[in-house]
Write a structure and sequence with these properties.
Helix content is 40%, strand content 15%. The protein is an alpha/beta fold. The structure holds adenosine monophosphate. Adenosine monophosphate binds next to helix 3.
Length: 450
């Protein structure tokens, strides 16, 4: 079997991989690394969980070392664009680990953190900058970041970037990057819109395709339970009481829904955290750390927030609500079954979600077996429902605890918020996908729906 040295990687990189306990390249690494080392552009169809970060980071580090150029103030040599802060942090963490013995400096730039800190980080320049497009453009406009010495450009999760409305930001950014560069372009799916975007960025790329969205699904044991929307909370509570369930990621379609699930679980004695775009960066990091350490082993997330969550040992993914975009389902269940492990995905399907279930089955080319409600469900659900009255008290407390403004005046409850384009907007009908700079740094005002 091929090892990393056979792929052409230098000793300091192989040593860093050994330190992480990785000795065998994943398929995308085996396919992509030689092309990238040769200096070719790359079009990679692969999703998170396949080892694609190392597939682009490792050979790029080697090329940066070989080119031997120096970092100049405010400049970076490699720019990785990612759709979410979580994914950006994850990539930076990997780049630091893989570049440990190659003396690579790494910085991240994304919204929700101090722009002054970004400015300081960039003052001396870095080898590898991992950024979300919105905040990067802010820094470029303020002349704290310059892109004209970039040797390698990576676009990660391009389909998600389009969904989030980053297209204009991406076009602006790419104009600022030298034409003479290497470009690595990754997307989990490759519809026509992504192919067209890719054509604007890459030249004569090597094509590496790892999993059509469908096949991650094969490693995950999946089943669905038909349940009324109103009884999902009771079913979730009962499911989570099962001692076989260890670390579980629960997906809701909306941020509001995620908060509600956390509150109701709390009322039933199950600690959980929510992670979504309305939470501060610090809050998300805390929730993730508590999840990773197992301290709070239930994390309730929206699709966007969950992008880039890389936690091994997620035993179960529970779809509290099904996504209406079937590819999202594959992304969700891919959070379990990381790096070759198996996992279990359970979907709670209300009547009006059955069409989504059919779409998912079509995409994954699998029939998802139905599992009946537990025998004692009605009686248990009634008990659990009786705790709900407590919830309204909790909700009131929460409202009362909202931070006060300068004169002790409570800010109005947010019904609208700045957020990235809505990935759930029906495709082709505009939704808020047309917005240019969404994402971490800015964006327009729209309904809080994800
Ligand atoms: P990614 O698709 O880049 O998010 O990687 C998925 C997970 O696989 C991460 O936890 C990586 O650290 C891990 N990983 C990457 N490459 C390897 C490898 N060759 N062997 C084992 N695990 C790996």
């Amino acid at each position: 079997m091929t090892n990393f040295t056979d792929l052409g990687l230098a000793e300091p990189l192989v040593r860093a991989l050994e330190a992480k306990g990785y000795s065998t390249p994943t398929p995308i690494q085996a396919q992509a690394i030689p092309h990238v080392l040769e200096g070719r552009d790359l079009l990679g169809i692969a999703q998170t969980g396949t080892g694609k970060t190392a597939a682009f980071v490792l050979p790029s580090i080697q090329r940066l070392v070989e080119s031997g150029k120096r970092v100049l103030p405010t400049h970076c040599r490699m720019l990785v664009l990612a759709p979410t802060r979580e994914l950006a942090s994850q990539i930076a963490e990997s780049a630091r680990a893989y570049g440990k013995f190659s003396r690579m400096s790494v910085a991240t730039v994304f919204g929700g953190t101090s722009i002054n800190k970004n400015r300081q980080d960039m003052a001396r320049g870095v080898d590898i900058l991992v950024a979300t497009p919105g905040r990067l453009l802010d820094l470029i406009e303020q002349r704290f970041v310059s892109l004209n010495l970039i040797e390698t450009l990576v676009l990660d999760e391009a389909d998600q970037m389009l969904d989030l409305g980053f297209i204009h930001a991406l076009r602006k950014i790419v104009k600022l990057v030298p034409r003479q560069r290497q470009t690595l372009f990754f997307s989990a799916t490759m519809p026509q819109s992504i192919r067209e975007l890719a054509d604007q960025f890459i030249k004569d790329p090597a094509l590496v395709s790892i999993k059509p969205a469908a096949t991650t699904a094969e490693r995950v044991d999946q089943y669905a339970t038909l349940v009324n929307q109103a009884e999902k909370q009771a079913l979730l509570t009962m499911t989570l009481r099962d001692p076989a369930i260890d670390r579980v990621l629960v997906f809701t379609r909306t941020k509001h829904g995620a908060d509600r699930v956390v509150r109701l679980l709390g009322g039933n004695g199950i600690a959980a955290n929510a992670i979504h775009g309305n939470k501060s960066q610090a809050n998300r990091e805390r929730a993730l750390a508590a999840f990773k350490s197992g301290e709070v082993p239930v994390l309730v997330a929206t699709d966007i927030a969950a992008r880039g969550i890389d936690v091994s040992g997620v035993s179960h993914v529970i779809n509290f609500e099904l996504p209406n975009v079937p590819e999202q389902y594959v992304h969700r269940i891919g959070r379990t079954a990381r790096a070759g492990n198996d996992g279990i995905a359970i979907s709670f399907v209300a009547d009006d979600e059955r069409p989504y279930l059919r779409d998912i089955e079509k995409l994954t080319r699998q029939k998802i077996p139905l599992k009946a409600l537990p025998e004692n469900f009605l009686a248990e659900a009634a008990k659990i429902a009786s705790t709900r009255s407590k919830q309204s008290v909790t909700a009131q407390q929460e409202r009362d605890e909202r931070p006060r403004g300068p004169r002790g005046v409570r800010p109005p409850r947010k019904t609208h918020e700045a957020r990235p384009a809505n990935p759930y907007a029906p495709r082709g009908r505009g939704g808020n996908r047309r917005r240019g700079r969404g994402g971490q740094g800015g964006g327009g005002r729209t309904h809080a729906s994800a």
